[in-house]
């Protein structure tokens, strides 16, 4: 609880020199990338603080589509938000109760405070749709921003044409009732939240109850026993779950006759869709050699590109799923040093 209070009290002021960096180059990249895709940036916050992640809001006037993107964990400030894992209760404007990860809920409040005026007073009256997205910390925050906005919009004089969240590698960040509610939407053909989980990614499996199940493995319980516990109906109201419809990107293990990495990739990824209870294997923390590498955004991009290509959709994605995490980190670090 002390960590939550520290975040909510703006404790970053005491640590500013250690936990934030000037983001001018990143701001330029965001602006240029949005411009290339026909979007204009309406709001851009490049510096993160504990409980206040970096984010931007852009819009396409032709399509009447706005995108809110929340950055994932990058700085120690972001890590403090991740670690504030207490559960907070919130009474929502649609009359429902929400139990949520305290750090992500604080982050969602911060993002909403930043963009609410533009969304409510400018975009909604003009009939815009809003797509909220993010990866990791950004995904968890995006899910809660979407749930809060969905409840809040009922009191607005003008409502968005539609609102939807596409979350990549979110943590379990809200209670079972709200998580299941996020699988529905005003549009029966879509869900309010679509959560993607990449194979062995540990992050979408991390919650207080799942960490407790991990301790059972350490005490000698079998995986079968832990799985049975994961699907049991004995849940607390505050237990955290992945929100919305869930798509698990599964990595096939078929061998390839060619030893080159490139030849192994086509067809290795498949997608399984359902609700979180349909996937008991994400009900406990999975420890594997790829628990971290499968959390990386490049792996998600490649997996989605392969799955999309099977459906005749071409996505641009570099083939980097087999790259070792250490090599990836070294390459990214070298690139950042050269850019500086």
TrEMBL record:
Q: Does the keyword Cell membrane apply?
A: yes
Q: Which residues form the Fungal lipase-type domain?
A: 68-209
SUPFAM superfamilies to which the protein is assigned, alphabetical: alpha/beta-Hydrolases
Cofactor(s) the protein needs:
Ca(2+)
Molecular function GO labels: lipase activity; metal ion binding
Q: Which UniProt keywords apply?
A: Calcium, Cell membrane, Hydrolase, Lipid degradation, Lipid metabolism, Membrane, Metal-binding, Phosphoprotein, Transmembrane, Transmembrane helix
Record-listed E.C. numbers: 3.1.1.116
Q: Where is this region: Disordered?
A: 250-269
Q: Does the keyword Membrane apply?
A: yes
User: By what name is this protein known?
Assistant: sn-1-specific diacylglycerol lipase
Source lineage: Eukaryota, Sar, Alveolata, Dinophyceae, Suessiales
